[in-house]
């Protein structure tokens, strides 16, 4: 209903410039006719806000800003990458120098331990279609083979139906969303032409993704932030036995708010960054209701390459 | 403290953000709330609620003008408070007078069956005010956004009250004409 109240609300459309102009005109900060509030109340407000922030953080409702950082690796790098030996008790395995100091780059993610499982799919108009892929993992396959069972202790194993219910999707839906997709070429290339993968915060928690193994070289082509998304484009060159170098392109888009990484890796002979960017623009991410954390038994690294996916 | 530094404190989730905001904009927001509520306790409540809203809004917001970002929150809270308490009575403050004046601005042949979008009106009001000469902008915004008493506006301009009232009357008519021109009624 249009009445005085409605017009009063419509006054909210007045621009900042006019509000500031009038604020100065009225010299509002110098008004003294009202009783100033007690500073104690402000302290109470601040205290409540601090407690609220702690409570929200504890409940997982606070806005957590995850980050993606990269650094070059050098031979003198002393990062203690942890490797859990086959016979070791989890977290008591071997701490060893895995000689990753000669790799090109490590990407480190600061994410929360527990997070939502994500999937992706290609939208209409994408330069490639998921049906062209030569392999991949759907969310259904992930649930069926890994999350409910696999490495999980028996008491944590859950039937597929339960997982799908927790994820808020039907069985047929879970077949339409992927965790990874690999594309090959018909050019005789031995490695895949392209790999697309989504890693959520739970998968990335405490992890370094190692690029350029072994003895590779990294060149950052682009690094920028668009809103909540950190973007990194890097060329990784790895020397081959024949003296040449395998050159792979990596496009990373890390959503700091949703804590999810989209990784698109492509062979430099076949693809370029504008194409990878166009593909990224046509990838739709889906946050499932499935909340989980991963026990990696203390392992804090993972080799990330086009060949391994 | 600069606004950007205060906003950074919010983003860092530091409770100093609220103390610094109160130090810089407490009086400003209190004035806005007081003009609407005409009551110190209510105004105080609105200002404290404003700090909470700001705390919850940053992140993810990074307001370009912190003063008006906070002022808008305070104004909306104060209006909602008065509206929910159904406390608008004649003589209860500037809000009731401003409402009466704005009611004059609504044509009698308004199509009551039509649903009106507030956003359209907000855009129309925004562009209308921006198109006014500077003095008219100050008078209109002071009266209908800040709910400043006519007497106070007149004093600031060194005008008589009757002259200020006639300026406001002219501006309301102009607003009504503009809304008609834009097909909003």
Mean pLDDT of chain B: 86
The CATH class of the largest domain in chain B: Mainly Alpha
Spell out the helices and strands of chain B N to C: HHHHHHHHH
What percent of residues of chain A adopt helix (DSSP H or I)? 10-25%
The CATH architecture of the largest domain in chain B would be Orthogonal Bundle
**Relative strand content of chain B:** under 5%
Give the end-to-end Cα distance of chain B, rounded to a whole number of Å: 46 Å
Tell how many strands the DSSP assignment of chain A holds: 15
Helix/strand/pairing class of chain A, anyone?
Answer: alpha+beta
- Radius of gyration over C-alpha positions of chain B, nearest whole angstrom: 18 Å
| Largest beta-sheet characterization of chain B | none
Low-confidence runs of chain B (pLDDT<50, min 5 residues)?
none
Radius of gyration of chain A: 25 Å
General description of the model:
The complex is a heterodimer of chains A (309) and B (185). With 309 residues, chain A is α+β, with helices and mostly antiparallel strands. Chain A folds into 2 domains: 4-59, no CATH class; 67-304, no CATH class. Helix content of chain A is 23%, strand content 32%. Chain A is built from 8 helices and 15 strands. Chain A has a 7-stranded antiparallel sheet. In chain A, strand 11 and strand 12 (245-255) form a beta hairpin. Chain A is globular. The model of chain A is unreliable at 30-35 and 85-96 (pLDDT under 50). By secondary structure, chain B is mainly alpha-helical. Chain B has 2 domains: 3-85, RNA polymerase sigma factor, region 2, helix turn helix motif (Rna Polymerase Sigma Factor, Chain: A); 94-181, Arc Repressor Mutant, subunit A (Orthogonal Bundle). Helices cover 72% and strands 0% of the residues of chain B. Chain B has helices spanning 3-11, 16-37, 40-57, 66-85, 94-104, 118-130, 134-144, 150-157, 161-181. Chain B is globular. Chain B starts with a helix and ends with a helix. At the A-B interface, helix 1, helix 2 and helix 3 of A face helix 2, helix 3, helix 4, helix 5 and helix 6 of B.
